[in-house]
Amino acid sequence: MLTQPTTLQAVLDAKTAAHPDRRLFDFVGGSGDGVSWSWVQTRSAATDFAAGLQAAGVVQGDHVAVMLPNGPDFIRSWFALGYLGAVMVAVNTEYIGAFLERVLAHSESSTLVVDQSLLPAVAAVLDRCPALKRVVVAGASEVRGFDAAPSIEVMTVDDCLVMQSELRVAAVQPGDTAAIMYTSGTTGAAKGVLMPEAHIMLCGQGAVEQIGVNSEDCYYTCLPLFHINALGMQTCAVLAAGARAVIRERFSASAWLADIRRYGCTVTNMLGALADFVVATAHSAQDRDHSLRLITVAPSVPELVDVFRERFGVADVCALYGMTEVNIPLYSKPGETLKRGSSGQLFSSAFDLAIVDPDTDEPRAVGEIGEIVVRPKRAFGFMQGYYRQPDKTVEAWRNLWFHTGDAAWQDADSDVFFVDRIKDCIRRRGENISSAMIESEITAIDGVRECAAVAVPAEDGGGEDEILLAYVLDDAIEAEALWEQAAKRLPAFANPRWWRALDALPKTPTNKVRKQALRDDGVTAETWRAPVR
């Protein structure tokens, strides 16, 4: 096991001292397109902004919501909070309405750093976020048309930088909370995962130890930084290894290979349906004209693994398994044959893992399906709990194992094969979505008596879901009109693709919706399909 610093500021300081002028980040797309930062430029951008936030009143331990697309402003903000010892509340840039309100209000964020293009969504919920004291706007030289209460200070990033004075760097420890990331619950609203500094850094260190990310690598990152995959496994791997990162504002299947070729990228990650989109692009004589040596995939879909090896000629396609709460406890190894459908083997120096009966927690035998449970072996390498939800924390940690809610089985060689989600959560386009949140928002639409959201297999495969909504109406509403109204209340990724009107939802004798019956029926002939936008 390699010994590495386990806080963000310690890693950045150490690597900057070692090679200050080496290039660290290239940004592609959006307002930061074409910007490149060396290690010392990255550190300066972070400490300058940290000093400005400190002058504005942000102190160690404050919760600071960051609602920014991939780019220089996100990196600047995240690293700045690391120097202040403040807690980053990562906010999905597609959140609107109740989804956005839930994160801002429940997290008790006192400061919000937000891209100017997202201000309308913020304005709609601002009066229901009582802890908020200041809004810092990125991507604008001045703020116009944004009304906030007199108690909320509004400034731009440039205003903040002008205010800066000498930075008082916080004494941050590996067990201090670095971030809160909201992950969808199964029967209720999203839960805020408390993530220690060492937990996030271990995501990256694991990539160094398990799949060999090194200082000569260039990691292509096109997943959103407000999720742990891109933030921890990819960006922190670059920091831990002293490597280089290319960060695209948002994924583009058509630009994927061109970017990799242009920047000489050697490593990237494919999550869920993204792999399908890349595979669906037209074949080209340049498909193998690149320096990509390794792709990690989750889930491990054998047909897609084959395409990346055969069509694109990538030497190693490695599987992994992880979640926000538990880090990344499973990897397959480069240079070893990946069994079809395997999610890899245990990262044994950092985690314990077992497959158990989901009701009794008794161990399952080899080949038997059960629930994945995990626990850490390195200090602070795991979540600290769910913010302001101690009951959910205790529930998840039954018998001192974290219960993932995921079904899997293990073979005699200790490969783990993911099967399905036990919990009633929907995964779509890389997002974990609470069915309860969807149902709450759609039931609030006039004329909807009740509804139920369930997962059905995505048309394009990839091991992911589409959302089917079964609903009962009091008033006649066309499905398309209902979908249009839902678009005003739900993030695009959470707006159902399939809409099925029923006279009544199937119920149990205790009046609970029988969601399995809806899943079994799936997409019927009368189900309306929403257009792709």
How would you describe what is shown here?
A nine-stranded mixed β-sheet has the order 2-1-11-10-12-13-14-15-16, sandwiched between helices. The chain has an eight-stranded mixed β-sheet with strand order 7-6-5-3-4-8-9-19, sandwiched between helices. Helices cover 29% and strands 27% of the residues. It is α/β, with parallel strands linked by helices. It folds into three domains: 8-19 and 35-172, 3-Layer(aba) Sandwich (Rossmann fold); 195-421, 3-Layer(aba) Sandwich (Rossmann fold), CATH 3.40.50; 427-529, GMP Synthetase, Chain A, domain 3. The model has no long low-confidence stretch (mean pLDDT 93). Helix 2 (39-56) packs across helix 6 (157-163).
Fold topology:
Elements: H1 8-18, E1 23-28, E2 36-38, H2 39-56, E3 63-67, H3 72-84, E4 87-90, H4 97-106, E5 111-115, H5 119-123, E6 134-138, E7 153-156, H6 157-163, E8 177-183, E9 191-196, H7 197-211, E10 218-221, H8 228-241, E11 244-248, H9 253-263, E12 267-271, H10 273-279, E13 294-298, H11 302-310, E14 316-323, E15 327-331, E16 345-346, E17 351-356, E18 370-376, E19 385-386, H12 390-396, E20 402-410, E21 416-421, E22 425-428, E23 431-434, H13 435-443, E24 448-457, E25 465-473, H14 479-487, E26 498-501, H15 515-521, E27 528-529
Give structural attributes.
533 residues; alpha/beta; Rossmann fold; GMP Synthetase, Chain A, domain 3; 3 domains; nine-stranded mixed sheet; eight-stranded mixed sheet; 15 helices; 27 strands; 29% helix; globular
